[in-house]
Amino acid sequence: MKNGLNNVRQVQEEASVWTRDQMAARAAQELQDGFYVNLGIGVPTLVANHVPVGVDITFQSENGMLGIGPFPTEDEIDPDLINAGKQTVTELAGTAFVDSAASFAMIRGGHMNLSILGALQVSEKGDIANWMIPGKKVKGMGGGMDLVAGARRIIVLMEHVSKGGAHKFIPECGLPLTGSNVVDMIVTDLAVFERSDRKGASFRLTELAPGVTLEELRDKTTANFVVDL
Fold first, then answer.
1. DSSP assignments along 73-109, one per residue
2. Which residues form a coiled coil (predicted)?
3. CATH code at 49?
């Protein structure tokens, strides 16, 4: 990782947490040449701005685009070209447009090397809840359930605590699950957690954001994790 990671280093003395862009830059380090990648709505879409130089990635969207280009400039906006989050995007040479059945066949068939998603909660067992808060109206789960079941690797990008101060990396999810035992890596504004496999392995703390102490992290985390710094 070059530009994005450099940006993270440049603000080490100025910030005690990673910004959303810096979180996305850290997640982008996990991209590998030739990967097919699906980005969830919200912070994950910023990952596309930090693809390492020389790494060729094909971004896929559940609404039927394979080969999503960068966000458009003002004079490039085409309201008919949108991603799954209804953000306007651009197309590339070779971009393919397919129907929903074909799009979800790519996902369910295990053809996505990586999916980077947001989350409301993640449990220490790798469960993810990211689609509904009881009592609030939602249009539906979207492609989340298919992505966590079909993509070969799942990375979660989220703030470590909610705006109301609630912990989000916790022993057990209290919200309706999107998937069980599916998360491989978590990148928050405070830290990075990884686990080697999904067969009962614990999450390992592998990085702390600049200025964040282990004591502060533990104070904001109720999930159990192994320190591997």
1. PGGG--TT-B-TTS-B--EEEEEEE--HHHHHHHHHT
2. none
3. 3.40.1080.10
pLDDT reading at 220 higher than 50: yes
Residue 62 appears among annotated catalytic residues:
yes
Q: Find the domain containing 204 and state its range.
A: 3-227
Residue 154 tokens read as 């799942």
Scanning the chain, the segments in alpha helix (DSSP H) are 3-10, 20-28, 100-108, 144-150, 214-219
What pLDDT, on the 0 to 100 scale, is given for residue 5?
Answer: 52
**Sequence-ordered list of residues with C-beta below 8 angstroms from that of 155, at least 6 positions apart, any chain:** 27, 30, 114, 115, 116, 117, 183, 184, 185, 186, 187
The tally of domains found in the chain comes to 1
Which of the residues 30, 62, 124, 194 is marked catalytic? 62
Q: Which two tokens stand for residue 113?
A: 């090397």
Question: Is the model's pLDDT at 219 over the cut of 70?
Answer: yes
Query: Cβ(118)–Cβ(27) under 8 Å?
Result: no
Q: Give residue-wise pLDDT tens across range 137-191.
A: 767 777 899 999 999 999 999 999 999 999 999 999 999 999 999 999 999 999 9
The span from the CA of 106 to the CA of 98, in Å, is: 10
